[in-house]
Structure formats: structure tokens, C-alpha cells
């Protein structure tokens, strides 16, 4: 597709990335490929996780599902609480570029460190009753999408996909329920919080 855009430029996202690469001082060939792969695949598993984890959280306590059926306007804050409570990406690896100290611990250049996003999202200094899944939670400033220069490019799309999916589920299968209360987590994914399966009846 990159070669095709070079031969016949198009006014689309990949065309814009190829144009940036051809300028030479913005994207290298390797950066262009890595960025394209990220844009094409990164949002798939995380959005699947948001919808699967969120549905599990809602159905594991039917009062939550019923609350959304009664008050569909709560879908947006419910999505934010899903992201906080079961973030699709629970941790992010980072390679230390320089020595630093954090919380009294020395971090050395070249070490791999992890941002524990799910732990931050349950910090009692920032969240009231952090271990409670509360779709009415206000001021939900979670870190499910990261922060700063590493903030997720697809955050607005992920939120919209979640809203569309849950609005459709509420409308089309209001009687949906879990087959088993026990979650089937995919423990092979080191940096993803993902269900392998979620059997339901409706």
C-alpha cells in the first residue's frame, strides 16, 4: 500500500504518512512502516478488550446492566469506568534513556521499566472507593489511554466504538446474561487485559 501511495498519491491517512516520509525530516521508512502497522492493528485488540471486559463487568452484576437499560445516558460514563477498572492495556514498557530516581528508587539508563496503568487507575489518592466499579463515577481521570506524548491516538475512536457497541447491545439484546460468572482471562498476553471467551445467552 505504501508503494501504491508513492506511485499514485491519495488524500487519505496513509497518503499523508507517505508524503511525510518523502519530506525526509519527519518520518523514516522504518517509522512509516511502524506507524502504519500501529494504526492498522493496535486498536483492534484494545477495542475488543474494552467491549468484552466492559460487558463482563456489566453482566457480572445484573443491577449494573439494568441501570444502563433504565438510563441509557449513562453509557458514556460507564465506558470511562470500564476503561479505569479493567484497562485494555494494564502496563506499558519503557526503556530508560537516562538515570533517574522515582519514589526513592534508582532507575538506570538502559533498564526496562513498566508503567502500571491499572495500578494507577486504582490509586486511592485519586479515586474514591477505587475497587468499586461505579458507572456513575464523576471526574474519572483514568490513565487507560496513557498521558502526555504517549496518549493513545485512537482514544476518541475507541470511546465512540464502545458507545456504539453498548448502545446496540442494550437495544437489541436487553436480556443478555453470562453463561458462567467466572471470567476466562487470556493470561498469555503480557500487556493486554483481555478475555479469551465470554459465553452469553440472550
Secondary structure: elements and pairs:
Elements: H1 2-7, H2 13-23, H3 29-59, H4 62-70, H5 75-85, E1 91-95, E2 100-102, E3 105-107, E4 112-116, H6 117-120, H7 155-172, E5 177-178, E6 184-185, E7 195-197, E8 200-201
Antiparallel strand pairs: 1-4, 2-3, 5-8, 6-7
Helix pairs in contact: 2-3, 3-5, 3-7, 5-7
Mean pLDDT metric: 91
CATH architecture assignment: Orthogonal Bundle
Q: What characterizes the major β-sheet? A: 2 strands, antiparallel
Number of helices, counting only DSSP H or I runs of 4 residues or more: 7
Helix content: 40-55%
Q: What is the CATH top level name?
A: Mainly Alpha
Percent of residues in β-strands: 5-15%
- Give the helix/strand class: alpha+beta
Alpha-carbon distance between the two ends: 41 Å
Contiguous runs where pLDDT drops below 50 for at least 5 residues? none
- Helix-strand topology string: HHHHHEEEEHHEEEE
Shape field? globular
CATH topology category name: Cytochrome p450
* Name of the CATH homologous superfamily: Cytochrome P450
Q: Give the total of beta strands.
A: 8
